[in-house]
Write a structure and sequence with these properties.
about 5% strand; 5-stranded parallel β-sheet; about 60% helix; mainly alpha; 5 strands; 41 helices
Length: about 850
């Protein structure tokens, strides 16, 4: 909406009132007009309209006050009258000598001086209307202010318009003095509406602008014309396109405009409000007024008044909840606060909150941001509260900071607040590490594996270590070698005890079985058989079912899996530490024993339970297991959907090994959907290192082999399938139903024209026959001796040049067990030392 001269927007009401007032001057009706409002609202622009509305021949007296001139007596009056009386050459002064002391300094306006000024004004208005226009009256010197009030009350018979601009904060005194005047008019220019803002922006860009840009300008300027003009000018200087602006380009420009206009004015006009805005930007807009008062040394009433001033300025929403009206406000404020001041403010806030007994999370947030060297107990409690609320990211931040404080200042440091009962060094490194590992299990599995290793290394003794690891047991951790090692080692230590505790041994043995190790199985089996089928026993049974299925013991695997499946179906599975090992292991056993439908149903139930328990790691495992079950059933679309969902979760949980597994599942499903090129693109994202579970690595190799075969590269596919089988054999996974690498390798052999090799591998023969004794050192036997999977794993590493000690460390066995396996191999092959192994295993 445009005003009379086309330059003002949304000012029709104000201009109409000015026209009415000026029309009254011709009838001898005086007027006093005060224009109130915050800076930039267009008060001076309205004052500038007055001369254009006056009749021809009217006299205009103008003055603009400034703080630097407020100490000079009658400086405003001289601005008004000097141009008229001085130019007339009358040689007289209109400021009587009585108004000055002997030194020339102000002695206060006398009544004679005020009468003399009134007489001067009357003489000027004798034959024409006079308009006295004063900008920023609040900065006028004291004698001039007295003159303004004095003459305003004595205009009854004079055609004089007395108009002044001043902010709301300075209007109270003048309003009190002039309130009874019948010809007093007050104007409060309103903020520009969104329509006017859009028109002004369109005009500035000389073309219609994007509605989003117009809305953003409206929100930032909050209807303030000066801020809007400044913002638009900045946008044009930065060549922001009016048609399709980039918000990331516009927001910093808007923040800079706010900083140099509204925020600068606030610092000058209302320091208390500026201080409060800084506190709210640093600490958050919902900060309690009492807290702000304590930080600023102001009372709560003053803080509430400052908050109201911020609402009026458009820098804060009224609330509740209190929020900043636009995303650019907080960055604009923070950009004006030095980093050192921010840290200091957070530190003071933490101290005040601790002394007031505020919630631990509220205090801890400021402790972390300020980098305070105190507050160990607060951070520990905050970590527990955040974890209980499901905010695992914040819990991890608090606990990491608590760990960093273990080498901080001793109790009683003057930098810490006096808080009864606080003992900064009471929490041990071990306990904090266990807490952090428990939190990381929900958000960062690779970090959880590292913390688990640290927790195991710092635990007091085998039993203490086992109890800690039992609390952290999750099948998701054993997908990497780093995460598996502490469980395997602790399981071996615990099984070697004369009377190991039942529940920790069962849970650790379940973890070890899922890594492919059978450490502690016999002791765990005895303890499981003697007790009830509790959650720990079900975890062990499910993992044992997977181990049995991996070695081809179908009946045992199905029997153990059925026990876990029935318990899970009856909703008897307790959501405790290590609970997923049972149903996940059972589901794998069902897949590997040709029962994918039952595995799919079990995985779905695990998925539902894990979601309800906010157990993201188990949700991920259930997704991948169900994807494999769908794949075995030939339902490639649903397998791909589960793999994609698992992939997104694996990335969110920072689980490198399970990300690799999810990518492999997705690629295999795409191959099933005849989208081999898409599958190849998926596998290019797999950048996992060598620290993977052998089955996960084998799954990746199989997926790459399937993609290579689907794209016609059978030589590469064959190598990948054979490598897959080799890695499975190293971990004792001999059941061909686990991963059908033999069948796929046979297809590759046939595609390459090697029918004999295809027939051999389908019959179960190894890539390098490892079962024929050397003819010179063994008796002729019509049947070739076979090596057990454990013996094959030992022989493979020995042939690579590893010593018995190195083999024991890699396979998590004792050196004595490795030597025992080698002795049996020597007897089977009819040899006496490892130097004869290579020749004995060669093809006759």
């Amino acid at each position: 909406m445009h005003a009379v001269n086309g330059d003002l927007y949304h000012r029709e009401r104000e201009i109409s009132l000015l026209q009415e007032v000026i029309a009254g001057l011709a009838l001898g009706r005086p007027a006093v007009v005060t224009v109130h409002g915050p800076r930039g609202m267009g008060k001076s622009a309205l004052l500038n309209v007055v001369p254009r509305l006056l009749p021809e021949g009217a006299l205009v007296l103008r003055a603009r006050c400034h703080p630097s001139e407020s100490g000079f007596p009658y400086s405003m009056v001289r601005q008004l009258f000097d141009p008229v009386l001085g130019a007339a050459g009358r040689g007289e002064t209109f400021i009587p000598a009585e108004a000055h002391g002997s030194s020339g300094e102000a002695a206060g306006p006398t009544h004679e001086a005020l009468l003399h000024l009134l007489s001067t004004t009357r003489s000027l208005a004798a034959d024409r209307p006079v308009a006295v226009l004063v900008d920023d009256l609040q900065y006028a010197d004291e004698p001039s202010l007295r003159w303004f009030s004095y003459i305003a009350r004595r205009l009854d018979d004079l055609p004089v318009l007395l108009a002044a601009t001043l902010p709301d904060s300075a209007a109270a005194r003048l309003t009190e003095e002039l309130g009874p005047l019948p010809y007093l008019n007050r104007l409060w220019p309103e903020p520009l509406c969104s329509t006017c803002t859009t028109e002004l922006v369109d005009r500035a860009f000389d073309s219609p602008v994007d509605q989003g840009l117009a809305a953003l300008c409206d929100a930032l300027a909050h209807g303030n014309p000066m801020v809007l003009h400044d913002l638009v000018n900045r946008l044009r200087r930065e060549h922001v396109p009016p048609g399709a602006p980039d918000p990331q380009q516009v927001l910093p420009i808007g923040a800079q405009a706010l900083s140099e206009t509204v925020l600068a004015w606030l610092d000058e006009d209302d320091p208390a409000a500026g201080e409060l805005l800084t506190q709210l930007a640093v600490l958050g807009p919902d900060t309690d007024p009492a807290m702000c008062g304590a930080l600023s040394q102001h009372g709560e009433v003053q803080v509430l008044q400052a908050r109201d001033a911020l609402v009026r300025a458009g820098l804060l929403e009224a609330g509740p909840p209190a929020r900043f009206p636009h995303a650019a406000v907080r960055p604009a404020v923070l950009a004006r606060v030095p980093a050192e001041d921010r840290l200091h403010l957070h530190g003071r806030a933490a101290t005040v909150l601790a002394r007031l007994g505020a919630p631990a999370r509220q205090t801890a947030e400021h402790l972390v941001k300020a980098g305070c060297e105190w507050g160990l107990d607060v951070l520990r409690d905050a970590g527990a509260q955040a974890a209980a609320a499901g905010d695992h990211a914040s819990a991890a931040r608090y606990l990491r900071r608590a760990l960093a404080l273990l080498d901080g200042p001793p109790p009683g440091d003057a930098s810490a607040p006096e808080r009864p009962g606080e003992t900064p060094h009471a929490e041990t490194f071990h306990e904090l590490t266990v807490r952090l590992a428990s939190v990381e299990l929900h958000r960062d599995l690779d970090a959880c594996a590292r913390q688990t290793v640290a927790a195991a290394d710092s635990a007091p003794g085998p039993v203490g270590r086992a109890e800690v690891l039992a609390r952290l047991a999750s099948p998701a951790l054993v997908a990497s070698l780093e995460g598996a090692q502490p469980f395997v080692r602790a399981c071996g230590e615990l099984a070697a005890l004369a009377a190991p505790p039942r529940e920790p041994l069962l849970r650790l043995t379940a973890q070890a079985l899922l890594t492919g190790h059978r450490t502690g199985v016999r002791a765990a089996a005895r303890l499981a058989a003697r007790g009830p089928l509790d959650p720990a026993a079900r975890s062990f049974s499910g993992a044992l079912a997977a181990a049995a299925a991996a070695t081809g013991r179908t009946g045992t695997a199905q029997r153990l899996a059925a026990r876990v499946e029935v318990a899970q179906g009856a909703a008897q599975e307790a959501v405790t530490a290590g609970w997923p090992a049972g149903p996940i292991g059972a589901a794998l056993a069902l897949i590997w024993t040709e029962a994918p439908a039952a595995a799919r149903d079990l995985a779905t139930r695990v998925l539902t339970t894990a979601r309800a328990a906010d157990d993201g790691a188990t949700v991920l495992l259930a997704r991948l297991v169900r994807a494999e079950a769908h794949h075995r059933e030939g339902r490639f679309s649903t397998a791909y959907a589960d793999a994609e969902a698992g992939l997104a979760l694996a990335r969110r949980l920072n689980a490198a090994a399970l990300t690799s597994a999810a990518l492999s599942c997705a690629a295999r499903a795409l191959v099933g959907l005849d989208r081999a090129d898409d599958a190849a693109e998926v596998l290019r994202e797999d950048r996992s290192a060598g620290d993977l579970h052998p089955f996960v690595r084998a799954l990746s190799l199989q997926a790459r082999g399937e993609v290579a075969a689907a794209r016609g590269d059978h030589t590469a596919a064959l190598g990948l399938f054979l490598d897959c089988g080799h890695r499975l054999a190293l971990r004792g996974i001999t059941n061909p139903a686990c991963l059908p690498w033999r069948t796929q390798a046979a297809r590759a052999y046939r595609a390459l024209g090697e029918e004999a090799a295809a027939a051999t591998i389908l019959n179960g023969g190894p890539r390098t026959p490892a079962v024929t004794p050397h003819p010179a050192s063994a008796p002729h036997d019509p049947e070739r001796p076979t090596l057990t999977p454990a013996e094959q794993r030992v022989v493979e590493l020995v042939l690579r040049g590893h010593s018995s000690l190195e083999v024991s460390e890699r396979l998590f066995l004792s050196k004595r067990t490795v030597d025992t396996h080698l002795g049996r191999v020597y007897r089977k092959l009819g040899i006496h030392s490892r130097h004869e192994l290579a020749a004995a295993l060669s093809t006759p």
